[in-house]
# Entry
Amino acid sequence: SAVISQKPSRDICQRGTSLTIQCQVDSQVTMMFWYRQQPGQSLTLIATANQGSEATYESGFVIDKFPISRPNLTFSTLTVSNMSPEDSSIYLCSVEAPGGYEQYFGPGTRLTVT
Amino acid sequence: QKEVEQNSGPLSVPEGAIASLNCTYSDRVSQSFFWYRQYSGKSPELIMSIYSNGDKEDGRFTAQLNKASQYVSLLIRDSQPSDSATYLCAVTNDYKLSFGAGTTVTVRA
# Structure
């Protein structure tokens, strides 16, 4: 499976500010995904990021709040904008395995908004 | 109705016993089914994938799929304390993963 890294691993931010999370993969992948895991909850898909096209957002998530970039086949960023305490979550990126449907997750970014 | 439902936990089993985890899904066109293990404070780790009806075994883990009943399960044989974690059932429709709420398993030494 691919090796996935995320930066930062954790951060504490003030409300009203923005944070950009980076996701780096050690091989080229077509599809990258961003998930949110709120405290004590399961994972919810935020958006799918394909290189060379706009990200596709799931219901309840909008580009103004969670802009995503996908400049190449090994890298993506997710920005959490104008943060509020409700955005305190773990944010995870994942990639789809080549030729299959399996997804592998990065280590996550634990975000706390005060 | 939730897309993916898992049996409520937590599930406590003695060391060496079998842990049985269940999952049902609502979308009949779902094609791929996965079990992830998530240790506290860590990200989900893929432990099993299953695509066709029947059983699939990998070491101490066995996944079972019944598409007619829209049911997928995971058996953990000879449970070890290191198996204590939350197990997430995930289902794909096209490429999107939908997760269940998870079942927390505790293996008692």
In short: Chain B has a mean pLDDT of 94.
